[in-house]
């Protein structure tokens, strides 16, 4: 484990030419404390360093490691009073010397190193900020899971009289259908078909199955909308007017054949069949009117909602441990 603590009380004395440089200093380490020192080397540079205890004199260096710039251990030694090491760099980069006092008392060490190089230029170390992520032991936490489902709301067939029948014989050429949406609805859709042939309408209503066609794409909004736009509309032979209304007051005005307002983007006039998206989360009303003066018509309506469902579960999770540090490299 690399702990980036700069060498405290290390007094550097640089001697010689660019081909030969040396540093020395004193390391004061408390029990179990570790310190690092970065050294820049070109390919072929030879590094020689020594470590020995000053106070107490017979104290041991608990642990010494040499890391490359990928944090791989190049050399390691443990439990020695005084020792000299040599290393030749196989590639240019910044290596790190790591010292750790494994004893139960404060110890001072003398550290000296020298570099012999064939390069005239002395490498300069620069630092960039980096982060590593590791994971600790698993702990139990309540985790929220969110999922979108396509939920069937209602599916019905209706018969509407002609306009003249409604006017003269008291029949109904319009119906009002309340739409009660499930909790968590994000938006909803309706498929519509109209035909003078009741059997044809009922077969279309039974076979189209809007919810099952859309359920595969519930958690991917882009694919869901693509699926809706590419669906072949259910068969339809005759026309109706379909209005989506957001308030009960406007719905009652539609029912009573008074002037009313409706949601234009999700309403259709002269509509034979198709699938319509309603970008709303609130309950609504659908009004259907047969504009034909002579013929009654059978209509089929299927309503489907896109519902966000959320539940919480007690699960074991591993907590991420993010380590931020500065990584050395040779500045060009």
TrEMBL record:
UniProt entry keywords in alphabetical sequence: Signal
UniProt superkingdom: Bacteria
Signal peptide start-end: 1-18
Protein name per its UniProtKB record: Uncharacterized protein
Species this protein is from: Sediminicola luteus
């Amino acid at each position: 484990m690399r702990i980036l603590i700069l060498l405290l009380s290390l007094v550097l004395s640089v001697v010689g030419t660019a081909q030969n440089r040396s540093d020395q200093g004193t390391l004061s380490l408390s029990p179990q404390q570790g310190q690092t020192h970065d050294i820049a080397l070109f390919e072929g540079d030879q590094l020689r360093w020594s470590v020995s205890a000053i106070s107490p004199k017979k104290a041991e260096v608990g642990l010494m490691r040499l890391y490359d710039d990928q944090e791989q251990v190049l050399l390691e030694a443990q439990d020695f009073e005084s020792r000299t090491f040599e290393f030749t760099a196989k590639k240019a980069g910044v290596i790190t010397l790591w010292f750790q006092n494994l004893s139960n008392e404060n110890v001072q060490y003398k550290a000296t190193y020298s570099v012999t190089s064939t390069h005239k230029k002395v490498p300069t170390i620069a630092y960039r900020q980096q982060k590593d992520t590791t994971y600790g032991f698993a702990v139990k936490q309540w985790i929220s899971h969110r999922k979108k489902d396509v939920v069937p709301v209602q599916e019905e067939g209706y018969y509407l009289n002609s306009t003249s029948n409604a006017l003269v014989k008291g029949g109904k050429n319009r119906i009002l259908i309340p739409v009660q949406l499930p909790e968590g609805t994000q938006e909803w859709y309706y498929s519509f078909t109209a035909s003078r042939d009741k059997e044809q309408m009922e077969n279309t209503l039974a076979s189209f199955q809007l919810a099952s066609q859309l359920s595969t794409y519930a958690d991917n909004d882009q694919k869901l909308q693509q699926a809706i736009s590419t669906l072949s509309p259910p068969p339809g032979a005759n026309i109706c007017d379909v209005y989506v209304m957001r308030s009960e007051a406007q719905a009652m005005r539609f029912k009573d054949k008074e002037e009313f307002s409706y949601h234009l983007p999700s309403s259709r006039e002269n509509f034979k069949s198709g699938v319509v998206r309603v970008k709303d989360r609130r309950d609504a009303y659908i009004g259907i009117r047969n504009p034909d003066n002579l013929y009654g018509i059978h209509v089929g309506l299927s309503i489907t909602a896109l519902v966000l469902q959320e539940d919480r579960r007690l699960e074991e999770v591993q907590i991420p441990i993010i380590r931020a540090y500065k990584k050395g490299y040779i500045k060009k």
